[in-house]
Amino acid sequence: MIELLTAADTRELGRRLSSLLQPGDLIVLTGPLGAGKTVLVQGIGIGLGVAGPVVSPTFVIARVHRGGRLPLVHVDAYRLGSVAEVDDLDLDATLAESVTVVEWGGGLVEQLAEAYLEIRLERAEDDRRTAELVPAGGSWPERLEAALPRVDPPALVDRDRDQAGRARNARPRDALGRPLPYGAAGVQRQPEGIQRSPHGALMEAQRLLDAGMPFHAHEVLEDAWKATDGPERALWRGLAQLAVGLTHAVRGNAAGAVALLRRGTDNIEPYGPTPPHGIDITGLAAWARSLAEELDSHPGTLRGAASAPRLCGTPLPPPDRT
Fold it and tell me: Quick one: 138 and 236 in the same domain?
């Protein structure tokens, strides 16, 4: 978590991040009005050296800025209500050669790229702003790890972290991962980087799904995905995407849920002929497709536990501790 005391700090963060950017990068900006999303994009534009001022494209939806190291595609998705409306912009046509930054893009544009960087900007009542950089796949974790230690002004320092790698003064979150006001009693998140066996990861994720905590189940499955380099990597990624899709559904974000449920299904279905670890690939795919179709037709908020899928065809036995 990075504290941003002034607009200049936000712009400077964008400028420094620009040095990491490569053709095809997708950055998703989330946060309330006035959190600094456009200011951050201005910093990215300055760092890339694009021509012309970078202003919010609210009414034109998307602008392309050229003349720099890489083209910058700046999108404001505030007025977009569905993934279908995003598709109408044909962002895929420029994605491979450009850096694409989408304000208000959470739950709408993640399907555009295999990997992306989410930047969660928050604005407190005292006008203090923070940025949380959340890498999703690809080389983003390594690139950020290499760059963030060089962010040295006092307003741009990474927060103090505990032994599990969590920011000690990170903003508390509820059972669905939504940020709460500082000082509120949040729900403890899953510790990062725990090495679990496939059986252990499935058991813990199922327990959390059954408890109506799909966001936390996604953290467990994401750890398994990141720890897997072999042929099952796409499987664990797909399972994590299904959990995130359910999280969006329970939060009431039908468009984001549908996109992630379908992406997760696409990732797990190739494992159907020989399902590893007793995972019910066929059942999960059917559940995800049915839920996606239901949300497409009748968007609404679901109850997490009532909507939770079974990860395995039969109940998982306790792990063998002998």
Answer: no
Could you tell me whether strands 99-103 and 26-30 are parallel, antiparallel, or unpaired per DSSP bridges? Answer: parallel
User: Domain for residue 210, yes or no?
Assistant: yes
**Number of helical H runs and strand E runs in the chain:** 10, 7
**Would you state the structure tokens that stand for residue 110, as one six-digit string?**
């993640």
Domain hosting 146: range is 2-156
| pLDDT value of position 58 | 65
Question: For residue 6, is it within any domain?
Answer: yes
Do residues 75 and 64 lie in contact, with contact meaning Cβ atoms separated by under 8 Å?
A: no
**Residue 125, domain member (yes or no):** yes
Structure tokens at 1: 């978590």
Q: How far apart are CA 102 and CA 28, in angstroms?
A: 5
Share of the chain above pLDDT 90, in %: 33
Do 83 and 11 lie in one domain? The reply is: yes
CA distance linking residue 170 with residue 4, whole number of Å: 14
| pLDDT, tens only, 186-206 | 777 666 667 889 999 999 999
Query: What is the rounded radius of gyration, in angstroms, for the C-alpha atoms of the chain?
Result: 20
Report the CATH number at residue 42: 3.40.50.300
pLDDT tens track for 250-306: 887 787 788 789 889 999 999 999 999 999 999 999 999 999 998 888 876 565 555
What is the identity of the amino acid at 275? Answer: P
Domain count, the chain: 2
In a domain, 306, yes or no: no
- Among positive and negative, which fits the CA dihedral 230, 235, 237, 240? negative
- Structure tokens given for 176: 């669905």
Residue 243 and residue 123 in one domain: no
How far is it, in rounded angstroms, from Cα 277 to Cα 282?
14
Tens digits of residue pLDDT in 29-60:
998 888 999 999 999 999 999 987 888 776 66
Overall pTM > 0.85: no
- DSSP string computed for 215-245: HHHHHHHHHHHHT--STTHHHHHHHHHHHHH
